[in-house]
Amino acid sequence: YVDNIDDFMKNASSSTVNKDKKYYGIGKDRNVITIQVEGLQNFVINRKYNGKEITPNLNKLINEDSIYFDRYYQQLGRGNTSDSEFVSHNSLYPAMDGQTYLMYYNNTYYGLPWILKDRGYTTAAYHGYKPDFWNRDKAYPYQGFDRFYSQNDYSITEPVIGFGINDREFFKQSISYMKATQEPYYAFLVTLSSHHPFTMPDEYKEIQLMDNHENTLLGNYIQSINYADAAIGEFIEDLKREGLYEDTVINIYGDHFAISSMDEDNKRLMTEYLGYDYDFDEMMKIPLIIHVPGSNVYEKISVTGGQMDFLPTVLNILGLENKKGVMLGQDLVNATEGFVAQQTYMLKGSYIKDDVVFSMSRDGIFKNSRAWNPNTKQPIELEACREDYERAIKEINNSNHILKNDLLKKFIEEREGLSNEEEKVDTRVLP
Ligand code: GP9
């Protein structure tokens, strides 16, 4: 599958600016904040539990100046949360032979932080946990981050929730760093409080659980994600108070699922709660919200997409091109059809489209796989999935080949040479 890699990379690169694209540049030149929320699944959005909204602040945000993508999927490899950020920033698939941030941390990349740095942005990652977890401290400079504010930069105040600093404190202390950052900036914030197993101090449990959800993962999760939502709500208000809100684009997405459909008890609990079968397509669905204050944009986009599509989608909003690198995803605002290849939990060859979910069998035998229509839940003839199954494998193999051979290095160098040439030509034709 990799013998046409040059063509594959060229096809995955963009060099033409099309200003007619929908929402192109509505966030141009603004600061950019991305919040990657631990364990945020899509099913909690706009849903009430026991009469209370689970995520009132995200729901409110979605309803004003936002684009909400409600069929957006995680696309992880072996690096879990670190893959979520890697895929989102780079529009490449993560490795399966190890963790990308460990095995390929010092490759050449050209993802969102680099692209913004090239436009004069200051870039920083914020995460209140150990700096070497997932090898972030070594990987971040190669991802294009000027600065990494880790656990060492935060005062870890009570209550500690789960792994460490609670989300409310995390956001408050992050804002003080952001205020001191030269604009325009890219701030990438990774939250922590809603981490498995979602246990919360009693005084922060705002939602009364139903009896059958006491001491269950679902019950804990509802309370924990409700807390994370409250922390995000406070962060937005603090941004407004500090004058950091208006001139900013705020992206919010979940890193990966919280409740596994592969565990029989949790699957049953979720199926009862949702009223439909809790399968991979619901488990791996995470929300993506792009909030552009003052834009008067409100749209729910239901084309199927995944973390691979984050970079091209955000670049369209910012009115920017990725002139040097490759992107295997697509801009979901202007896409007419979606395609999301999977390789973890759903095995390699699996994919999700607008009207198909194909889940490769664990024994690796195609005819033992499952396929269904996510809208009707009806089974789909497997042979009808073969072409896209092959496409899914090809995309992942080619992406993996790029990582293994650090192919972006040469590709970017060539592009840099080309853009210099272009500039020379431009100078000559200018009056
Ligand atoms: C740890 C946090 C959680 O730094 O990002 O990682 P996870 O355990 O979800 O992969």
TrEMBL record:
Full protein stretch here: 202 to 632 of 857
GO cellular component: plasma membrane
Domain of life from the UniProt record: Bacteria
Name of this chain's protein: Phosphoglycerol transferase MdoB
Protein keywords: Cell membrane, Membrane, Transferase, Transmembrane, Transmembrane helix
Subcellular location field: Cell membrane
GO BP, one annotated term: lipid metabolic process
Predominant cellular place of this UniProt entry's protein: membrane
GO MF assignments: phosphoric diester hydrolase activity; transferase activity
Mode of membrane association: Multi-pass membrane protein
Pathway linked to the protein: Cell wall biogenesis; lipoteichoic acid biosynthesis
